Every structure is written in structure tokens, then in C-alpha cells.
Amino acid sequence: MTEPRTDQPQLPTKLQEIVTMFKSLPKGMRLQALLDYSKRLPALPAKYTEHPEFMQPVPECTSPFFLVTEPAGTGINMYFKVPEEAPTVRGYAGILSEGLQGATRQEILSIPDQFYMDMGLNELITPMRLRGMGAILMRLKNEIRDEAYDV
Fold this sequence. Notes:
By secondary structure, the protein is mainly alpha-helical. Helix content is about 45%, strand content about 10%.
């Protein structure tokens, strides 16, 4: 029996399930699934709605995109603010929110920078939006790297 390779970055279990699901869908259904995730993005907690200055912008994204992370037990909670008028970017935020909620700092930092390409999104989304998705993940990682989380 072959042992799994440990030198390759692994996705957190829930995010891997989402990537696998997207990969298995026909192209047309992938777009619908992305739009479904845009509707599942949790609302911001009141403390961030009332104090948006605590959220970090992602200026590389063409849509107004803001994020914030905070420690939660042994993991990290993250919150995203994305306008409903940007459904594909909002869908990506929904995927990150669901796939990474409660993940550890190290699990998030170990995610391959372009994991979303394995989902087949490059067949659906413009290169500019894909670059924005990459910037969102990089900003998320930087936010986690810069914070002094003891998790």
C-alpha cells in the first residue's frame, strides 16, 4: 500500500470536497454552482458592519472586496464583504468561507496559490477575475501571516 505524499500541499478537507465537486460538474453547472455559493456567503457580523474600517481591502480585485480574520479556538474565522453585483467573486468568497471556516493557520497558509484552477473556473471566468481570485487568497494568507495568532 502506498503512503500519501506529504511533501505536496493538501487542501483542508471541506475545501477539497468543494474542489472535487466543481471538477466533476459539467461546465454549465460549474457556473451555477459558483452562483449558488455567492448566495451562501454568510452576512457580516454586526461588529464589522458597524466598523468596516477593521476590514482589509483587496485592491487587486476589480470588485470592491474586503476581508477580516480572527482566531477561533484552534482555527481561524474569516469574513468577507463583497457586493451582490459581483456574483462570481462573491461565489469564490462563499467557497473560501465554507471551505476554510475554522481551518488552522497552517492549513490556510499551505493552500496552493492557484487551487481554484483545479475547479475548472478558468473555463468560466475572465483572466482578470482569476487574477483577482489569486489576489484574494494572497491577501487572506498575508492577513493570517501578519496576525499574531497563537493557534
